[in-house]
Structure formats: structure tokens, C-alpha cells
């Protein structure tokens, strides 16, 4: 029998589902979060929603104001860059562990995604490239088996994912993104933890540099690191 602390509560479910919905872009910056609507949408009770909103406020994802309720917190450009700096360290750590843990099947799957990115670049499908790049990041987290890094990255991405930029659309960024992801995957394939961490840190740092240059390219509703 599982310990009581291992059980997933309704509040836990509400917190996870709402965080994921915000990460997907189902709710936009400054959009109001109405408890009764969320309870119906997430299939949980209002008490669970209320507690989940408190937790997400503590994570910096939601803001609550007296007499006005809760809304999705908007992230400034300066804060988005700070978040990416923190994310670079955590993603680098995950890549390091992935290089140690990766199986032949894992490497084959990662290389397949890179090849699909290459085709997307050739076809000019930059948003598909972005989605595939995010698949690589998620797959590396799974391979790393580093649960603490995964949880912390999840929180950081739920904050920055809403920021209104998509760096893959910046002029010249797409081929560089492909090269960076290729370097990460090949370092993992070589089971070289130092190289994998360095390649990942470099990639996320370059995303931050592109963001810092400040070209205001509009995003779709997801806006992940590319």
C-alpha cells in the first residue's frame, strides 16, 4: 500500500492540469482565472482549484489580487531572460545525465527528430522545427531521469512559455537552432556528459541572446524555447 504522502490529491491534479494548460497557452498573460470555470474545465472541485491557484502563485505563474481574483502573471523581457539563464543550468544538468543514461534506442529517436528538424528547415516550416526542438528537450528530460530538474524546468517553462516571442522566427535563427540541437544530440550519443551539458547551456544561452536583441516577433499561443 502506498504511503499517504505518495497519494495524488485532487489539489495536486488541479495544480498539474492548470500548470500544463498555461504552458500550452490555453490561457494568455493577464487572463482572468475564474474558480468555477476552472473547476468545470479541470473536472475538480472549487476548493482544489483555490488551493492550486495559491500554489501557482507561489511558483510565479499566477497572480491574485484582493476583490479581483486570479490571473495569469505576465513576464517581462528582462525576467524572461533571467528565467532562460536559470533554465540553461537545469537543462544542462539534464543533458549531462541523459548522456550517461541514453540507450541506443534513445539515440536513434533523438537523431530521428533532428532529421525531421532538418527537413522542416528545408521546407521553411519553422514552427514545425520549433515543435521538434521542444520534443528533443522533453525527450532528454525523460532520458535523464532527473526528477528534480524536470520539476523545476516545468515551473520555469510555465512562466516563460507565455512570453510573446518565438526566437525560431528571428532572421537567421532557424539554421543555428538546428546546429545547436544536432550538437546536443551527438554529445549525448557519444555519452560525453561534459560536452552534452556545454552544448545545451550554449543553446539556451543563444535563445536568451536572441531574445535580448528584442525583435518583436509575434508568437502563437505556446511560445516555447526553440
What would you note in describing this structure?
- The chain has 226 residues and is mainly alpha-helical.
- It has two domains: 4-72, Arc Repressor Mutant, subunit A; 77-213, Four Helix Bundle (Hemerythrin (Met), subunit A) (Up-down Bundle).
- The chain has nine helices and three strands, in the order αβααββαααααα.
- A three-stranded antiparallel β-sheet has the order 1-3-2.
Summarize this structure briefly.
By secondary structure, this protein is mostly helical. The protein is built from 9 helices and 3 strands.
What attributes does this structure have?
mainly alpha; 3-stranded antiparallel sheet; disordered N terminus; 226 residues; Four Helix Bundle (Hemerythrin (Met), subunit A); 2 domains; 9 helices; globular; Arc Repressor Mutant, subunit A; single chain
Tally the structural domains. 2
Mean pLDDT: 86
Helicity range of the residues? 55-70%
CATH fold field value of the largest domain:
Four Helix Bundle (Hemerythrin (Met), subunit A)
Q: What's the CATH class label of the largest domain?
A: Mainly Alpha
- Give the overall shape: globular
How would you write the strand order of the largest sheet? 1-3-2
Q: Main beta sheet: strand number and arrangement?
A: 3 strands, antiparallel
Amino acid at each position: 500500500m502506498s504511503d499517504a504522502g505518495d497519494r495524488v490529491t485532487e489539489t495536486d491534479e488541479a495544480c498539474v492540469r492548470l500548470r500544463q494548460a498555461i504552458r500550452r497557452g490555453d490561457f494568455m498573460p493577464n487572463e482572468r482565472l475564474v474558480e468555477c470555470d476552472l473547476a468545470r474545465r479541470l473536472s475538480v472541485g472549487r476548493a482544489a482549484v483555490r488551493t492550486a491557484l495559491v500554489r501557482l502563485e507561489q511558483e510565479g505563474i499566477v497572480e491574485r489580487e484582493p476583490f479581483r481574483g486570479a490571473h495569469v502573471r505576465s513576464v517581462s523581457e528582462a525576467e524572461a531572460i533571467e528565467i532562460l539563464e536559470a533554465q540553461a543550468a537545469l537543462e544542462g544538468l539534464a543533458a549531462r545525465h541523459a548522456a550517461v543514461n541514453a540507450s541506443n534506442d534513445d539515440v536513434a529517436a533523438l537523431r530521428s527528430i533532428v532529421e525531421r528538424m532538418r527537413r522542416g528547415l528545408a521546407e521553411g516550416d519553422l514552427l514545425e522545427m520549433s515543435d521538434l526542438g521542444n520534443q528533443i528537450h522533453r525527450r532528454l528530460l525523460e532520458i535523464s531521469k532527473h526528477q528534480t530538474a524536470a520539476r523545476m524546468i516545468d515551473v520555469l517553462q510555465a512562466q516563460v512559455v507565455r512570453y510573446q516571442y518565438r526566437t525560431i522566427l528571428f532572421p537567421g535563427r532557424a539554421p543555428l537552432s538546428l546546429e545547436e540541437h544536432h550538437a546536443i544530440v551527438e554529445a549525448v550519443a557519444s555519452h560525453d556528459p561534459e560536452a552534452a551539458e556545454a552544448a545545451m547551456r550554449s543553446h539556451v544561452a543563444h535563445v536568451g541572446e536572441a531574445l535580448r536583441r528584442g525583435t518583436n516577433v509575434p508568437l502563437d499561443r505556446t511560445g516555447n524555447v526553440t
